[in-house]
Amino acid sequence: MASGGAPTISAGDLEKYGYCPLNWWRSLGTADGLGPETIEGERRHEEVAAELKGIEVHEIRAKESERMVMYFAIAASIVAVLGMAFFTPAPEQIIQILIIISLIWILAAVFFLYRAETLVTRDEKLYAERTILVFSMVAAIIASVAVSFEATDRAIAQATVGAALGWLVGASWFLVRSLKSLEIARIARAKHGIGTAAVPYVDSEAEKPKLFTSKRHGLTGRPDAVLLAGDVHVPVEVKTGRTPRGPLFSHILQLAAYCLLVEEEFGKPPPYGVIRYEGASHEIEYNEDLRKMVLGKMDEMRSALARGGGVHRNHNRPGKCIGCSRREGCPERLG
Hints:
By secondary structure, this protein is an alpha/beta fold. It has two domains: 9-32 and 198-322, Alpha-Beta Complex (Lambda Exonuclease, Chain A); 55-191. It is built from nine helices and eight strands. The protein has helices at residues 11-19, 21-27, 36-87, 93-118, 122-147, 154-191, 249-266, 288-307, 318-322, and strands at 9-10, 198-202, 212-214, 219-221, 225-229, 232-238, 272-276, 281-285. α1 (11-19) packs antiparallel against α7 (249-266), α3 runs parallel beside α5 and α7 (249-266) packs across α8 (288-307). The longest helix has 52 residues, at 36-87. 35% of the residues are buried. The mean pLDDT is 78.
């Protein structure tokens, strides 16, 4: 637990410390370099952020379009039935039968409209709204057939048919628009392994979202995204570099810090966090051991700050040193 005067540590610094304590120490008081790899990484992060933000945008657009589908389809049915009621000769038995059938289909559409408002999941609502469109279209088509018979005022009857078909064209256009938006959102969800969860939080340079802060532990950070599955918030860390054979320790440490921040923010620990590489995705269980590890590493970092140094390289891998952004001038570099 951080004491009153203990320095605040960021999740990004924890990632550096997990990579190599000496890398972290040499980064203090300096800005990360803007080399080609850093610039490319930031650009790709912004692309990911835009895609994740686009999921909500397209799903909202799809929902609005679905609502317009219902309005247009029901309006088409009402117009067509009015045409039958006022502009066709009542004595004809076939007209009366078609009117009854059409009204039955409209009543069915109204029933599904009511059901759509009581359903919970997005998929169930979309299915009900498509059913409404189908029922309304059938009603309008039946009505159109009815008014195509000899009418007392054929010109008005034809105008009524045209109006009903026009409303159906509008309903169909909004349905296509809805399906396109849902497909874009579905592709983005599949690409980033999100499933059906909501994405209430996305980090980006263009729109800096809120900084998660734990005053209790002296920790701050912005996860790349936070998913909401039911009442569970799940942090996601996106890595745009190479895809390792398994999640790297430094990345697990950073993700664990985000899990701790999400726990503090929402009062409920996430069951896991997600590390997303370009070629793989890993769910990391968040448990008491991982939580203690984060707090332990933070204590080590604060101890190093208090004594003014004494940190060293924590590995014997020349390849890791070669890939280090602070290799130049490092007194303990390998190779």
